[in-house]
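Usage example:
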Amino acid sequence: MNCLEFRRRVGAAPSVSGDEIEAHRRECPACSRYQDELRAMDSLIGRALAVDMARIRSIRARRPRWLALAASIVIGLSVGLALWISLPRPSLAREVFDHVAHEPDAMSGTAPVAPVALAGVLDPYGTRLRPGFGDVTYARRCIFEWRVVPHLVVQTPQGPVTVLLLRHRNVSEPVRLAEQGYAGIVLPAPRGSIAIVGQQKDLDSIARQIFEAVDWGN
Amino acid sequence: MNRDDRGTDKRQRFATLCETLRPDLLRFAFWLGRDRQLAEDVVQEALLRAWKSFDALAEEGKAKSWLLTIVRREFARSFERKRLDVTDLDALVAAEADVLAAEDDAGLAEMREALFRLSDEYREPLVLQVMMGYTTQEIADQMGLQQGAVLTRLFRARARLRQELGIAAEPSP
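Running the assembly step on the lines above writes:
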């Protein structure tokens, strides 16, 4: 199976598996990652489609015999969500480093991203980067832990660093990351957290400056 | 079992099916028509039709697929009757904004809106696959399409969503 055939198949059904699929995954990291991304996106699609029944039903106050059912579904969804949240997840460090490792091209750019493109990535999250800190040479929205998150590369005087804005991930205190030859830190933020990955010795200081450069909105 | 008992048993079995499957049917109808009032009406009408032909359901294990088919047909009838204008997507999104909202999860709300804006031909098979857990062959049967056509639509649906959400293009092989 070649890359084209693999992507055609997983693009239509990301959960597809089988000997041919697994064999291609082993020999092609880019395709393997593509399938992982699509699976993560499907998880997001699934959550998006599972709209709150109470909201669907809110337009009609009649037919009260179904209200009890709607309430029970909301409770069921809440229990399901609680169970989902309590499921063991890969470590934050592994998720962050895997993501950075799988986008090596992100670090190679040198041209600043156009302000309108940067705003397009950050605006939906109510955040912006204050000017003057350093050029942003990569700005994309990526799938991370079943969420769409802003992924930036910022050129600092000490070299490029990767920045992930993780509004869905709360950490109570700074978390240091060290895996796969990378170093990083995750800082608590007004909304979720921010992960900074780089190879600089004074990464803590750079991370703090980047944190200060982010306008988290209201 | 006498005639009255059989009638009671049939009503109970149907009521149980409705209680179990109605949430999924309602969500399906909502994503099909992108209008919660229409979804309520379609599902209500579909369940009435289902009750009238409940005896035709040979295996209750296939009730979900059977009811989804009825909902699809009823939706098509409603669509024809009301001649709904769905060209103004912004108005549709605004009308259902509270259903699409996801507090403190911008990515989820964005995905909902992107799904809302996806054309019918791409949205329906994606809903059947991701929400209903249908195989591509089952989707083909449900929609009266060739399996290849379903695969193409599903592929394009995901590509459109990635594009709509500004997710990084697929990595180079």
